[in-house]
């Protein structure tokens, strides 16, 4: 008997939840580079190796045993460096190659390769910001005619409504108390923090989590999205591409869930009209979101973010 879409999604979610309780593959990578570091420095014991890493990072001797505790936590995956600077110093102290340092940031710490704190003429920043503006422009071009009319009559400029359109759209992908998604602009966002955060993210300023960037890309591109497209754009913005074995820092298998979701989307919607495809993406996402919420899992709820909590 052929499985229903909901059965497949349920099994996918259960598989990802179960996998999330196992050891991160990235942790095994760290163990390998750490063991290599010990071997290359005279077969050091772990305590001695941690002390050497501390000295390399801070150009000082650890004054007490607890000083090297964070090194132990970082290499075992119990905790990760709080700041990007710590992460880079840790990678340098481990004598990682340039490619390995990149993976330390993108894979082990699940971060973007670079962070921009202010608008700059830096070539990489300008290129990435232009790409995001292009995606946002294409997103606005796809706005439902009913929404355009509603905004026009209320005196709102379409481009200036990006934040609110995005927010309204995101609600269509999660289980919300307002019922089914409709082509209507809902009540305005009251969170000043969200408005500021969204504005900075659209300028690519500050640390933007990979999960957040995936959500931006999915919402902007939908329904014209697939695994290859999403992975390619993540790489262009400086993140690790989609990888079924990649995990978030808490061990959750977001990539595996997303790849399965998009594979099923491709199989179910091949040859369908864009509106039908969009509807499938929203319904499937709401089903997953509802199940994950009941399981008490937030890490895998791709389209849920804090400013939407009033609707959850």
What does this structure look like?
With 312 residues, this protein is mostly helical. The chain has two domains: 24-108; 123-311, no CATH class. The protein has helices at residues 5-19, 25-40, 46-58, 69-76, 84-93, 98-108, 123-141, 145-153, 162-171, 192-202, 210-221, 227-236, 254-269, 274-294. The model is unreliable at 177-183 (pLDDT under 50).
Low-confidence segments = 177-183
- Mean pLDDT equals 90
Helix and strand run: HHHHHHHHHHHHHH
Strand content: under 5%
Helical residues, percent: 55-70%
State the end-to-end distance: 35 Å
DSSP, total strands: 0
Give the C-alpha Rg. Answer: 22 Å
**Which class best fits the helix and strand makeup?**
mainly alpha
Describe the structure concisely for a colleague.
The protein is mostly helical. The protein has 14 helices and no strands.
What labels would you give this structure?
single chain; 312 residues; mainly alpha; 0% strand; globular
What's the layout of helices and strands?
Layout: H1 5-19, H2 25-40, H3 46-58, H4 69-76, H5 84-93, H6 98-108, H7 123-141, H8 145-153, H9 162-171, H10 192-202, H11 210-221, H12 227-236, H13 254-269, H14 274-294
């Amino acid at each position: 008997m052929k499985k229903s879409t909901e059965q497949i999604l349920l099994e996918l979610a259960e598989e990802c939840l179960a996998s999330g309780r196992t050891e991160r593959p990235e942790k095994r990578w760290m163990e390998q580079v750490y063991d290599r570091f010990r071997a290359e420095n005279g077969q050091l014991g772990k305590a001695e190796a941690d002390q050497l890493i501390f000295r390399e990072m801070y150009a000082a001797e650890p004054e007490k045993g607890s000083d090297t505790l964070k090194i132990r936590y970082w290499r075992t995956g119990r905790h990760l460096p709080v700041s990007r600077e710590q992460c880079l110093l840790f990678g340098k102290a481990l004598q990682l190659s340039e490619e390995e340092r990149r993976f330390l940031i993108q894979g082990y710490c699940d971060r973007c390769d670079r962070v921009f704190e202010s608008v700059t003429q830096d070539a990489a920043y300008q290129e990435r910001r232009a790409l995001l503006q292009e995606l946002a422009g294409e997103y606005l071009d796809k706005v439902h005619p009913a929404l355009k009319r509603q905004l026009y009559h209320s005196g709102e400029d379409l481009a200036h409504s990006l934040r609110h359109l995005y927010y309204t759209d995101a609600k269509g992908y999660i289980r919300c108390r307002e019922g089914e998604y409709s082509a209507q602009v809902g009540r305005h966002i009251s969170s000043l923090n969200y408005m500021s955060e969204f504005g900075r993210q659209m300028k690519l300023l500050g640390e933007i989590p990979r999960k957040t960037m995936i959500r931006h890309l999915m919402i902007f591109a939908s329904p014209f999205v697939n695994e290859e497209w999403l992975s390619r754009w993540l790489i262009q913005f400086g993140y690790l591409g989609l990888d079924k074995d990649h995990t978030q820092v808490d061990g959750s298998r977001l990539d595996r869930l997303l790849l399965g979701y998009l594979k099923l989307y491709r199989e179910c919607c091949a040859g369908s009209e864009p509106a039908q495809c969009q509807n499938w993406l929203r319904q499937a996402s709401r089903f997953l979101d509802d199940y994950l919420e009941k399981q008490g899992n937030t890490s895998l709820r791709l389209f849920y973010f804090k400013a939407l909590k009033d609707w959850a």
